[in-house]
Predict the 3D structure of the following.
Amino acid sequence: MSTTDTAIASAEAHSAHNYHPLPVVVASADGAWMTDVEGRRYLDMLAGYSALNFGHRNRRLIDAAKAQLERVTLTSRAFHHDRFAEFCTQLAELCGMEMVLPMNTGAEAVETAVKTARKWGYRVKGVPDGMAKIIVATDNFHGRTTTIVSFSTDHEARDDFGPYTPGFEIVPYGDLTALSEAMTENTVAVLMEPIQGEAGVLVPPPGYLAGVREMTRERNVLFVADEIQSGLGRTGRTFACEHEGVVPDMYVLGKALGGGVVPVSAVVSSAAVLGVYRPGEHGSTFGGNPLACAVALEVVAMLRTGEFQQRAAELGDHLHHELGLLTGGDAVRAVRGRGLWAGVDISPALGTGREISEKLMDRGVLVKDTHGSTIRIAPPLVISKEDLDWGLEQLRGVLAD
Ligand SMILES: *Cc1c(COP(=O)(O)O)cnc(C)c1O
């Protein structure tokens, strides 16, 4: 057996099969490229679902991590540490907000947003105890905890994990009338992705996010934007909400915030909202640890230059122009997305998304399929135009075969 086959067989024997990875075993990576255990190189066109927006082992981020590793890595929140205040201040400023509540994974940040909205509902809005409702969208993806899968519409994510957490109302994504009808006096928040990544990079109809903003403001409901995948440069702006000039009440951030080095997530909001917490009411042993803060601070500094957003916008225009040339034929049914982010619906006649992904892998390009015959393209924002063109060339090759 090859080194690759041995590693995969061993992984399959000793790990739960909650993923179905492509048959590639990565040993090292740099920038937009990964190298497997047999020395083959692959262009990473997935970027860890946007966790690797700045590429693999970005020099600035690795240096920041190394420097922090030599000082202090973990304190717990029982004590202050000297990177915490700076991280919270800088991240709040980047978001145009006032306060930060740091966690680790995206799902924890979404849980934090849910808890925050509920507490705000009871303490500030005056919703009767136990009655708070949060409205979410069909085809959402917000993570994998029991509460979060309780409001998923994806059977794979949800089935067999009940009993489910109550207090959520699901409305069709993109439908403002349905949203308006679902709102009651007990609605505390609308939780949505400004672009639905897992659903296949679904961009809502023009005016939808602005409509959600207006409606939530009028009804004293929090607009919580899950920008875990869409935020931090991916769409050509710092936040996907910006494309509609929308500022939500709460950003939920993760993935790229950890720079591809450590898991870092956060809820960022106003003092009126995050100010509802008192000591002991919420927390995390690792949330806001010194290593996480040092890396995320560097991420924030990099985003403040605007260069990554600009790259994503420029390369994204190029990507969507090139993908646009593929649509209309027999092979590609539709292309969606914004910035350096695209969902490409391949004609089922050419194979499943998985089969297309495997053929791309054989040509040295790594992507991920989602829902049937859709593949998702989201390379690191540091990818060169030449490499991006090479990756697109491989896609054209697979579609032509
Ligand atoms: C990935 C993701 C999450 C969950 O993040 P984890 O770090 O995997 O828990 C939540 N929301 C969105 C939009 C995501 O893309």
